[in-house]
Design brief:
There is one protein chain. By secondary structure, the chain is an alpha+beta fold. It folds into two domains: about 15-180 and about 190-305, no CATH class; about 320-465, Reverse transcriptase/Diguanylate cyclase domain (Alpha-Beta Plaits), CATH 3.30.70. Helix content is about 60%, strand content about 5%. The chain is built from 16 helices and five strands. It has helices at about 15-35, 50-60, 65-85, 90-110, 120-150, 160-180, 190-215, 220-225, 230-235, 240-255, 275-310, 320-335, 350-355, 360-375, 400-415, 440-455; strands spanning about 340-345, 380-385, 390-395, 425-435, 460-465. Helix 1 (about 15-35) packs parallel to helix 3 (about 65-85) and helix 9 packs parallel to helix 11. The longest helix is centred in the middle third of the chain and has 36 residues, at about 275-310. It comes from Rhodococcoides kroppenstedtii.
């Protein structure tokens, strides 16, 4: 007789206090190796990936800004240096400067702003820029001081070369990482999307890439200057992350390839901090224009919201409702699809305002809009077309479905309490057509007459009319 099986007890998951530092160490180790293998022999890297990635981690996910994660950053960089043959003392000293610079920059960026940083406009970009400068200055100062004290075991550090390398790395790479926003699951763009972006996005990008290639073929200052107008054009047309990526590609080519053969004023097998800083400062132009463009787009979006939506209820304004309803009807006419339109009016709204005050009337409108929106199927269009009147377009709804939606809204209003036991009921007129008309006007007129019948019939009811 075999012994009974002992049930396996699942292992508890590792706590975040262990997982977060470990993930930081692994990520920094990999990007540090990348930076080591792209630098010229015996010289500092023109772009040091590890610090830029670490700064992006701790300002976008502030939980990483603690002692264990900073130590993990240090360990990841040291491990990459040791694996690449760097002397242990030199690896420890130089990466101490890296870790201190990242912490100084993160604390500067998060000063009085503990929330995660995303590049959503020029104020956020200004905060990031100040933090980048502080991180670069602190890191260069620490590296210079430590290498001077331990001159026998560490290579001499030029403060200008260290600062320029740190500054350009932070500016190009951290900006890209902080400009990419996390969203929902990816969905393939529709053909209409490609039609809309064909000229406004594709053409500037193609021009920028073409001029970058032309600059590579050219010699001297054209390498830097030729793509700049196209990059500025892209900054006003494409997302911030796209501008940051294009700018980084352009600057990276200048620094990692052209700088080695003296095109930017650096001799062969040498580095010029002035050339590195020059590229970084030129790269600031497209990034700053892209940040200001985000501000302009935010203002335009607010203006669009004010024009399209009712500020009190959040439903569409009258003009926006009519415009969108007509566009939706245009897609239904050719296919002879059914359509319904509801006209809704709060009962005794004037009495609510007169007896309970206008504040209570506003509450009634907001809660009524909530009842309406929560009952609507996907694809419906809802708007406030008058003081206490709302309208809803139900595309491709048969008569039973439209009636069910209207009755759901009416019953939800019966349970809608304002103050004390006072309720706000609603009367609804429903116009239904088996084939969508060419204009929204017949639906509105029919639904308005049905609403009048509902009011005259005692309120808190639905009256449905079918268009001939």
């Amino acid at each position: 007789m075999s012994a009974p099986e002992v049930p396996k007890v699942p292992r508890p998951p590792l706590p975040r206090s262990i997982l977060d530092p470990a993930s930081v160490a692994v990520v920094v180790f990999l990007v540090a190796l990348l930076g080591i293998h792209t630098r010229p022999p015996g010289l500092l890297a023109s772009i040091w990936f590890a610090n830029a990635v670490a700064l992006a981690l701790v300002v976008r996910w502030p939980r990483h800004l603690r002692a264990s994660s900073v130590f993990a950053l240090f360990v990841g960089c040291v491990a990459a240096d040791l694996l690449s043959g760097t002397e242990p003392y030199a690896a420890a000293v130089l990466n101490t400067a890296n870790a201190v610079g990242v912490v100084a920059g993160a604390l500067t960026i998060r000063w009085r702003r503990p929330e995660p940083l995303l590049l959503t406009g020029s104020p956020a970009f200004a905060r990031l820029s100040v933090g980048i400068v502080v991180a670069s200055v602190v890191s260069a100062t620490v590296a210079t001081c430590l290498s001077g004290l331990l001159v026998d075991v560490t290579p001499a550090v030029s403060p200008t070369a260290w600062f320029s390398s740190e500054f350009v790395s932070y500016l190009l790479l951290t900006t890209i990482l902080l400009s990419v926003r996390a969203g929902g699951p990816w969905r393939p763009p529709s053909p209409r999307y490609f039609d809309s972006v064909r000229w406004t996005v594709t053409v500037p990008v193609l021009v920028a890439v073409t001029l970058m290639i032309a600059g590579m073929v050219a010699d001297g200052p054209l390498l830097v200057a030729l793509p700049l107008p196209a990059l500025l054009w892209c900054a006003t047309r494409i997302p911030f992350s796209g501008t940051a990526l294009l700018t980084a590609c352009w600057a990276g080519w200048n620094l990692l390839i052209a700088g080695r053969v003296g095109v930017l004023g650096a001799g062969e097998a040498t580095q010029s901090p002035v050339a590195t800083l020059s590229v970084a400062l030129v790269a600031l132009g497209p990034l700053l224009v892209a940040a200001v463009t985000l501000d302009r787009m935010a203002v335009q979006n607010k203006l669009h919201q004010a024009l399209e939506y009712d500020s009190l209820t959040g439903t569409l304004s009258r003009a926006a409702f009519l415009r969108r309803s007509q566009r939706r009807l245009n897609t239904l006419v050719d296919a002879s699809q059914p359509v319904a339109l509801l006209m809704l009016d709060l009962d005794d709204f004037k009495t609510i305002n007169d007896t309970m005050g206008h504040a209570a009337g506003d509450i009634a409108l907001v809660r009524s809009a909530g009842c309406i929106l929560s009952a609507l199927p996907h694809g419906a269009v809802a708007g406030r077309i008058g003081g206490e009147e709302f309208a809803v377009l139900l595309p491709m709804a048969d008569h039973e479905d439209a009636t069910a939606v209207a009755d759901t809204i009416r019953r939800d209003h019966e349970r809608l309490h304002l103050l004390s036991t006072r309720t706000a009921t609603v009367s609804i007129g429903l116009a239904w057509a088996p084939a969508a008309p060419a204009s929204v006007s017949p639906l509105l007129d029919t639904a308005d007459r049905a609403l009048y019948e509902a009011k005259r019939g005692g309120r808190n009811t639905v009256v449905a009319v079918t268009l001939a």
